[in-house]
């Protein structure tokens, strides 16, 4: 890589980048080497970390050397793809694949001037992939939000934003996703639990779950009042019967004593 510092190379298919060609894997001190790769206009570049084994500081930080991957041609913190801590050490980072959003990608190797030369090796494989192909395989069977995340395609145009940028709910007029199986579908396309219908609350946000519920509630109220009234009548009859039995039994006992 150090032989290509400040250069721009064209990548047609794939290329492997190594830190040093030295037989003892020596990495010189005081380096700030940037190398830019460019591919066709309708392609993107994907850099995959293949092997990693470089020295780190005593606290495990990339103080002795670090590799950074940037989106595009510029070395800028706002365009870094590999994280603010850099790539170094022997443990693979949580993210080991870095995709550009344009047809260029820049790799930078930095070593401070206050350190001696270090040893180590790192291999980064950079591949050129057509835009359409990469985007299709990034979210297989799913919907890709404009903000980058993948969501279930059944969540598109369902009335509830699932993407961070709400791109799954844009341009949905006349194309609502009718996937409210086992649920109530609101007028705005939102799916809610059937138990939330006619509960007096606007769960749909467009009040469609409460439409036509006034008469139903009154009917239910009358039915409940009728049942309660019938229960009271039955209870009164039972009390009367019990009282009659008690009174009759008392009169019979008194009559026998008088006789």
TrEMBL record:
Record SUPFAM superfamilies: LDL receptor-like module, Spermadhesin, CUB domain
Annotated TM spans: 220-248
Disulfide bonds listed in the record: 145-163, 157-172, 186-204, 198-213
PROSITE patterns assigned: LDLRA_1, LDLRA_2
Keywords: Disulfide bond, Membrane, Transmembrane, Transmembrane helix
PANTHER family (alphabetical): LOW-DENSITY LIPOPROTEIN RECEPTOR CLASS A DOMAIN-CONTAINING PROTEIN 2 (PTHR24652)
Protein name, entry field: ST14-like protein
Taxonomic source organism: Mya arenaria (Soft-shell clam)
Upper lineage: Eukaryota, Metazoa, Spiralia, Lophotrochozoa, Mollusca
